[in-house]
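Appendix B. One record, verbatim.
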Amino acid sequence: MSLPLISPASGGGSPSPGTAGRGVSPGGGPRGGLRGRPRGGGTRGARSPLGALFVTPYALFLVVVFAVPLGYTVWMSFHRFYFTAPGTEVDAPWVGLRNYQDVFTDPVVLRSFLNIAVFLVINIPLTVVLSLVLASALNSRVPLRSFFRAAYYLPYITASVALVAVWGYLFGTDGLLNHLLGGLAPDPSWLVNSVLAMPVVAVFVTWTNLGFFVMLYLAALQSVPRELYEAAGVDGAGRVRTFMAVTVPGVRHATTLVTVLAVIKGSNLFTEPYLLTGGGGPDHASASPVLILYQKGIEQAHPDFAAALGVVLVLVVVTLSLIARRLTERKGA
């Protein structure tokens, strides 16, 4: 007997965490309708002022820290803008789409987006697969489970400078890996090779963030009903079949979260190429859009160009995140 694809939301007779306790009528609507509301004439609107009071500080924080700077950045991207001394006023004439034209015709910017595409193609599959496999292993009864959980999480909370020093020792021209490979070592070496620099950065970021994503999957695995694994065992499914039929669909929402976070973190790459490859080298082979944004806006004093690049990057990140969410949740719809 073959094991059908099992979804925690539909199989095993056990309610999924998202539907537990709600109660669904045969027609698909909430059971009880208006009768399900609390007694005493209370409504959702009557309970909302206290909730709104708690939410207001964070809403104001979002407006001040994100919405206002984003709106100002959009305004800068359509003007010729200069950094000036405090108290000095300089005209910022309207230039329309000229800053965006400069962004899309700059070969360094185009190369940085290509680098990010290479980075995401390597980083996202590695992150999702390794995180889920390791979380599944750590969710079972294995010796030294607590030690391994802490060990995988340690790079995530370690300072990037210290981690970069370790990888510089491993992948440097006179590094340990080249000594082990001998004549098989790449020439030029890993971090100064225009082909290998970005893949090395992608693997480095995967390793440093792996512990965080393993924790996300571990939390998601706690919500997969144990009865589904028991049913798979009764059905004669092996470990691989159980993993593909129970675990993978059971943590699909976590996979969506992991993928979207990986896209956001990868698209905002800055520290790793700045430290690991000396500012995006060699010859911009590992440069990222955020690194170019910093160089153009701060080091070269072109904030209007940097603002236009920032707006383009936001649109790219939002688009990629929506695509990733659509792809990862398509089967669960």
